[in-house]
Amino acid sequence: MKIDNLEYNTEREKLIIPEYGRHLQKMINHAVSIEDKEERNKVAKSIIAVMGNLQPHLRDVPEFQHKLWDQLFIMSDFKLDVEAPFPILTKEKLQERPEPLEYPQNFPKYRFYGNNIKRMIDVANKWEEGDLKTALVYTIANHMKKCYLNWNKDTVEDSVIFDHLFELSNGQINLKGSTEDLTDSSNLMRGKKKKSSGGKKNYRGRGKKRY
User: pLDDT-based confidence at 181, cuts 50/70/90?
Assistant: First the structure.
C-alpha cells in the first residue's frame, strides 16, 4: 500500500509562533488569501476568538486582546490587510530597537550608597540655606555612613563621608572641616550586630564525648 500524501515536518512551512499550532497558521494563511475585505475581516475576528479560547481567563482583557492582534499580524508576516481595534503592528515597528536606558547611578564607584541617597542629595541641593537644610544634610551624611559600614567595614572616618558627599552633590554640600561629628560607628552598627547574633544557637557541650 502506497502513502503518497504523507507530510513530514521538515517539508512543512516553518511556524512563526509554534505554540498556536499548524492549523491556526493555515487559517491565517487562508485569511490573507481572501480577496473580499469584509469577509477577510470576519475571518480575522474568528481567528482572534480561537486564539483567545486557548487562554479563556485572559481573552476579555484589553491588553491581552491587543497582544492577540499583534500576534495575528506577526503570524501573517504582516500581509493581512484587515481592520483592527488597536494600532496595527508593522514589521518596522516590531524590529525597532528600544532607546538605551540611562544608568540610574551617576557615580558607579559609590554604588553602595544606593540611588535613594543621590535623590536625597539632589533634593537637599534645592533647599534654601537654614536649620532644616542643615538637619537634612546631616541626616543624609549619617545614612551614608551607615551604608558605607554595611558595605565595607566596622569603622570609617567622618572625613571620608564628607568627601563623598561633596562629590555626590557636585560641590554644593561641603561639610569638610565641620566641627560636628556624625553618629558613632558602633551605634550605627549596633542593630546589625544584634540581628546577626540573634539567630545563633548555643551548641556548647554538644558533640563532646563523655567518659
Answer: confident
